[in-house]
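Onboarding guide, step 5: your first structure request.
Type a short instruction followed by the sequence, for example:

Predict the 3D structure of this protein.
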Amino acid sequence: MKPYIPERLPLQSLDWVRFITLIGQANAELARYDGILQGIINPAVLLSPLTTKEAVISSKIEGTQASLEEVLQYEASPDIKAEKYNDIQEIINYREAMRFAIEWLKERQITLGLVKQIHGGLLDSVRGRDKARGNFRSGQN
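The system replies with structure tokens like these:
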């Protein structure tokens, strides 16, 4: 079985008219959010806990079992070997990958290289590290 190869972006067959209202609403919400962040001296203070929570929730898709509280406890005392160290490390990797992508996108576009770098970071020192870190699969499961 050959791997699925998606169409090149941007999709030519996409019906943009169907999405105009939703795009407008999303744009307005992003502008409002950006306005809030502009008024905060250090936006990272607001974003850091939200980014960590997003990492916890999204990592559960992969079977990660650590909670937000466990991640925060580990980060407050990294010398203590946490029971769920591997799960916590996966969450931390996820959060760092998001931060890396945010910094990258401030000056560059989304590229395959970015996706590969993010993938490599996600698998750093965790389960899957011996797989094709930073590379696309060459076959289906």
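Each response can be followed by summary notes, for example: Residues 43-122 form one domain.
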